[in-house]
Amino acid sequence: MIVLSGASASGKTEAAKMLMVKYGIQKAITTTTRSMRVHEVNGKDYFFVSVEKFQQLIKEDKFVEHTYYNGNYYGSTKDQIADDRVVVIDLEGLKSYSRLNDKRIVTFYLSTSEETRFKRMLERGDKKEDAIKRIENDRKVFDHGQIPTVNYQIDSEQRSIEEVADLIYELYQKHIKTNCH
Asked: pTM of the prediction?
């Protein structure tokens, strides 16, 4: 399983999409209590559950990690861990996956300068004030003392999304071949 983390606009979500399109990697489907949006499909975009169901899953120890964000629960269930799957996760989630010590889980941290990330946020249509808030928040969250040990750190500053995805896939394949066979 490929676990991608990094600050806002570091390229993790776009790299995950490229891995799915180019290499047939499947998206690990996370669980949430938030309402389904118009274009979303239950079991494809997320597993949409009630707060009661989510809390029951917590009690049953079904999650690798879970968080409460913007009034809703989000979590990754253990049954989604599988070869040739990708999950995009926040720093706390990354720590939880790292603690599993599972050789089939390969963790990646994508790093990019603040200037480049700010520019990417504006290019994708984020409001300037929202981009500034995200950069400021990321400074605290992604302080280098906070980043757990990962299998690979990739500088996505000078690489295209396709190059980042190719490198992730190449390192993932090599890691699995070396550590799991």
From this structure: 0.87
Q: Which helix (H) or strand (E) holds 137?
A: helix 128-141
Longest CA pairwise span in the chain (Å): 49
Cα–Cα distance for residue pair 181/175, rounded to 1 Å: 10
pLDDT at 50: 97
44: domain CATH number? 3.30.63.10
Q: H or E segment at 96?
A: helix 91-99
Least confident of 17-21, 56-60, 83-87, 121-125: 121-125
Residue 121 neighbours by CB under 8 Å, 6+ apart: 8, 9, 130, 131, 134
What average pLDDT does the segment 87-94 reach?
87
Asked if residue 126 lies in contact with residue 168, where contact means CB atoms within 8 angstroms, the answer is: no
* Same domain, residue pair 169 and 154: yes
